[in-house]
Design goal:
mainly alpha; 7 helices; 65% helix
């Protein structure tokens, strides 16, 4: 999936979670975007890979693309590290939600992800889409609509304060 689709996926996941929690929706939202981009640090051409080219090259050399940074192990390690060092629960939850949305979206591509890394089996959905293709554009549009749906209350609150 493309970076923009991952961003909207992170936004959707964060805003959906905000509906059922007492966490700060704005913090969840921002962290969800960061988390949605983070797994692609292993790809130099990704949005985050271009922002941190040296880190991206190192991670790619060590693990390749869509392996460790797209795994439950990485999600688990991030959860432990963030719980230990980040005092804001909303920030941790948002990043983890964004990462999980990234994994799910990439499981919809032909290559899939090494979800159970270090086991080298790629996990993907039975039906897959071409990255950047027409079906991805439909997925992007659906995620945008879901983001508006889940974020409506937040938007109303922001507009009413202004």
């Amino acid at each position: 999936m493309l970076g923009n689709t991952h961003i909207v996926g992170g936004i959707t996941a964060s805003l959906a979670f905000a509906q059922i929690s007492n966490e700060s929706p704005l913090v969840l939202l921002g962290a969800g975007v960061v988390g949605a981009l983070l797994p692609d640090i292993c790809h130099g051409g990704s949005k985050i890979g271009r922002m941190f080219p040296i880190s991206s090259k190192i991670v790619n050399k060590l693990f390749g693309h869509r392996s460790f940074t797209h795994s439950l192990l990485f999600l688990f390690l991030m959860a432990i590290l963030m719980d230990a060092f980040v005092p804001f629960k909303s920030l941790t939850i948002g990043i983890l939600l964004g990462m999980a949305s990234h994994f799910i979206l990439d499981m919809g591509t032909k290559k899939g992800v090494k979800l159970f890394f270090p086991i080298k089996i790629a996990v993907r959905f039975p039906l897959t889409v071409k990255t950047g293709g027409k079906v991805e554009k439909v997925i992007f549009a659906v995620l945008c609509m879901l983001s508006l749906y889940f974020g409506y209350e937040l938007l109303v609150d922001i507009v009413s304060v202004a």
